[in-house]
Amino acid sequence: xxxxxxxxxxxxxxxxxxxxxxxxxxxxxxxxxxxxxxxxxxxxxxxxxxxxxxxxxxxxxxxxxxxxxxxxxxxxxxxxxxxxxxxxxxxxxxxxxxxxxxxxxxxxxxxxxxxxxxxxxxxxxxxxxxxxxxxxxxxxxxxxxxxxxxxxxxxxxxxxxxxxxxxxxxxxxxxxxxxxxxxxxxxxxxxxxxxxxxxxxxxxxxxxxxxxxxxxxxxxxxxxxxxxxxxxxxxxxxxxxxxxxxxxxxxxxxxxxxxxxxxxxxxxxxxxxxxxxxxxxxxxxxxxxxxxxxxxxxxxxxxxxxxxxxxxxxxxxxxxxxxxxxxxxxxxxxxxxxxxxxxxxxxxxxxxxxxxxxxxxxxxxxxxxxxxxxxxxxxxxxxxxxxxxxxxxxxxxxxxxxxxxxxxxxxxxxxxxxxxxxxxxxxxxxxxxxxxxxxxxxxxxxxxxxxxxxxxxxxxxxxxxxxxxxxxxxxxxxxxxxxxxxxxxxxxxxxxxxxxxxxxxxxxxxxxxxxxxxxxxxxxxxxxxxxxxxxxxxxxxxxxxxxxxxxxxxxxxxxxxxxxxxxxxxxxxxxxxxxxxxxxxxxxxxxxxxxxxxxxxxxxxxxxxxxxxxxxxxxxxxxxxxxxxxxxxxxxxxxxxxxxxxxxxxxxxxxxxxxxxxxxxxxxxxxxxxxxxxxxxxxxxxxxxxxxxxxxxxxxxxxxxxxxxxxxxxxxxxxxxxxxxxxxxxxxxxxxxxxxxxxxxxxxxxxxxxxxxxxxxxxxxxxxxxxxxxxxxxxxxxxxxxxxxxxxxxxxxxxxxxxxxxxxxxxxxxxxxxxxxxxxxxxxxxxxxxxxxxxxxxxxxxxxxxxxxxxxxxxxxxxxxxxxxxxxxxxxxxxxxxxxxxxxxxxxxxxxxxxxxxxxxxxxxxxxxxxxxxxxxxxxxxxxxxxxxxxxxxxxxxxxxxxxxxxxxxxxxxxxxxxxxxxxxxxxxxxxxxxxxxxxxxxxxxxxxxxxxxxxxxxxxxxxxxxxxxxxxxxxxxxxxxxxxxxxxxxxxxxxxxxxxxxxxxxxxxxxxxxxxxxxxxxxxxxxxxxxxxxxxxxxxxxxxxxxxxxxxxxxxxxxxxxxxxxxxxxxxxxxxxxxxxxxxxxxxxxxxxxxxxxxxxxxxxxxxxxxxxxxxxxxxxxxxxxxxxxxxxxxxxxxxxxxxxxxxxxxxxxxxxxxxxxxxxxxxxxxxxxxxxxxxxxxxxxxxxxxxxxxxxxxxxxxxxxxxxxxxxxxxxxxxxxxxxxxxxxxxxxxxxxxxxxxxxxxxxxxxxxxxxxxxxxxxxxxxxxxxxxxxxxxxxxxxxxxxxxxxxxxxxxxxxxxxxxxxxxxxxxxxxxxxxxxxxxxxxxxxxxxxxxxxxxxxxxxxxxxxxxxxxxxx
Length: 1405
What we know:
By secondary structure, the protein is α/β, with parallel strands linked by helices. Helix content is 60%, strand content 8%. The chain has a six-stranded mixed β-sheet with strand order 5-6-7-3-8-9, with helices on both faces. Strands 15-18-19-12-20-21 form a six-stranded mixed β-sheet, with helices on both faces. Strands 11-10-13-14 form a four-stranded antiparallel β-sheet, with helices on one face.
């Protein structure tokens, strides 16, 4: 009988004989071993396939997630080990195909072990432990039968030298351990043999439907393969992943939990607590676990080269056929090529699983230690393969390591310098965008544009250096293994006078590839950035004794402060610009450094202070949220506050009323609206003390008076609250219970108005003259109440609140808009799916074409050439080791130039990619800057500042630094994979058959991953933005938050935002692991397929050297497959930056090209004719000026007044052609301004704006960026603006530093600089747009006189807040709703008592 039979077909001896006893028949013992497996399958299959439906109702746990029984992970590990040992047992048994009993029980054991784990998983899912009894019985039976077999082996003298004995012993141990695990479950859960079984509740997280991050709760297989992520990743194809889909974090992963864990670890240290020790105590276990996984993965990495060595070495040795039962040694098994192929596959799967597990728990630690271990192991194995020549080759790697280290340090330095230049460029760009209105009005765009381009030039130089070092680093990585292999083989040929065998050559090649990574890692330094949480304990004052305060230097800003703030009364702080009024408030709030003295508090008032800053600070939230600021909502109180601050008309105009979100730093509000919301916040809070820092500076007369009467005198005083008010409006002094007058950083005088009148007559008289009032007028206040219904609080600059708000809301990133449009056209799910999985080729092409076609051609050509040469070298190696006839030295010497070429190509290819990227980055930024800076002012009104800044910061950074390396990595990985598959297919064409299903699998994996990854990347970015915004917002408003005592609320919000961001980040990280596990397993299958195909083909005249070549290449595929997908997904996300930048490139520019000739001295006289002028901000909006007619004589002083929103500022912008003049015209000195080139028109007129804008640089640069004026002229302008003495006192004089936004000067001083700037430009027309709003009366009166004298012969148009500033004018124009209501001399207008101008003057008294 030649066929198969259970006990073999040996007819000479009776295989079924039991003469010497049943247990002495090996076949019977093996048959006995079948019993437990058959028992388990017989018991479990009916339960799994029939009875499970009835149990499912018992599932009490959400997500179908596992409630783990004790020893869960150990059970899975033991079961997997059991499966592996069964595979070895099957392999060993199959060697003798005629003895079925040698592998049949092992095969059944494999099926039973697999069934056991599926069965266990289902029991655990349904939390029905009684059914585990079947498994317990199975482990007991299996343990007994295997022990009998082992006992019989020992009896017959079969020992550890025989493989079958070792396998059986291992199985006994494994069954014993699994039995112990089962006993432990019975002991803990008491489900059998006990009267009252233990009831178990699922973990708290699993009872919460919101928790979707299941990695800590799923079983070990799902943990290792991220199987639980499948529904999310595959579902992303149908509809995008949203924030609610990823839910919230498990408790153990939340920011608060970890913060408390770290805090406790830190506080537990008695002596000298260290943050590093605390981190180790708090998170040491996962770090240790991660490192262990990593070491295991690295050690398994060496299995690849060793298996290749074994396969190539033993390829042509045929195994001896065994007709009897033969006990083979372990060594013989490991010489079987098929076994080695399977072992290689299993080693790769295990290595990759450990690697991904280590990434999940990792904080990259111990890299240096790991690297050292890998190098030592690698060198030992190389020496074992090739002897001394391997050490010579390895020495090349070691000798070149310092060069790698040097490159790494240079890279770090260059990166820092690039970051500095990038920050500087961004700072300049931000300043330009914030002051864009001023730049356009003064025609300075190009000067500032050039300044940004200069900084950009320096940044690009740094980027070029960075690109060079990056290329050198990539070149070293690619060139070192080539050089090491060359040196090794040449020295081997010279020392041993023989060539290495194919097996040695290819194992060495694979080892050299492994060695490069740790060496590169050794050269980089791991840096931790630990952010310390600073606890903030503010102090709140009522009394200051002997206070000397400073802003950080030793020079005191405030000197000798001795004041008391009376409880429940109104205290006013007055004084000239820059005398230290705001600083005094901040000193009392504990925000300044105290040099000496003390601030005292009464306990009752210590808790919270209502505070409205001079520079309004708003949250990125609704109007209501900004006012209530975390306090409970009280409708009556809220309405009273809204009315007191005259906010109702403004709120009515908002698209969503007080539920409208007000944007970053309140950019979609006018200055007055921002200020009133801040004041409303201070009023609404139920605090005993309220500090108001110049709340009237951005308000007109009516609003100021209303706020004073209704808000401060009525609302706050009725509540008997202590109010401290900083103001320039001296007419309100009569309401003060206590006055503090300041001068040059110290208190000049304090007391009631009567005290000052009695004791400091001079000061009192000075105040009286400032207010231009008689004594009796000071004592009685005329307050003209007015109806606010006709006030239109449209933000004039924006051409209307609602439009700006909705348009800003609509300015979603362009890709979203496109997606929405497409969805509307066809809501079909398949269309959406296909669109989401498409790669944005069009944008990629736009990017590449920005880099230049020559660079694209060079990149493609050099890449293809490099990979062809590298394949050629490895092919030569295979031929050389296989071909016995070629002389040893000849070929070795001939190969040096080829290797040199390959190394040079490595450098050239990475350089071409980097420089292609730089060229694209240069062009894109240049075009973007020019487009933005020449865009019409309307563009800046409807586009949020943050959105424009994002293009210059985040998006430019991605284009500069992220796309080139991603592109380089993508092309390299793709070409490496393609060349590997090409080589394998060339060596074993049969591999192509297996390639088709592998390619299909790969296609689907990458397709699903890219869509999900993009969604999760977007979620990560979008959740990071609120976190960063909240952080910067909190930092910016710290004084306000601490004054209100709201630290804990903001900290809580910070923790919540951190958790939200961490959830997105963890899912993104898990998705990356999901991909890598699958591509790694796919790579392992490719290696297995290649190995099996090689072994099958080896008999058909395939040289073993070619098998070695194919397998070495197959091994590289595993590493590079997931890089292809990751880089593809990254590139897709990064290309969105190019898309966003391109969307801004289509913005239309203002017309700067006109070449109309204008006389050099135009406008000479300053005559202005306004004829039937109609103006609007946008063709879609209503006109803001309607048929306005006016004539202004040369040299006339004209005042324009009107309520907020009457069109005053719009008229001033029309002079500069900044708005759409769609009808009528303005003629200045005989020339229609609409026909002039914008540059000419704007450079010949002067304007002073309401908001003072200063740029970082010097005082000289701020006054005269064009560098056309002499120093004398600049000093003259400063003298006129009352700043000469102050500037002289500064170090550097005209070259003294101005910080960003002019923050080192007070608001009033900044306004004076802006006046000086206008004086420097000696134009015959000056427009003052509410330019004196934020300065005190004394300075204002001086200025008015100066304007009258310095501009005596010029035309001055003043748009006035305070009507008394235009009483001296030659002509007054009163505007209402875009029309001229009254126009005449002020005296004439005052005669008409019912007129609007007269009512304004009365209200301003």
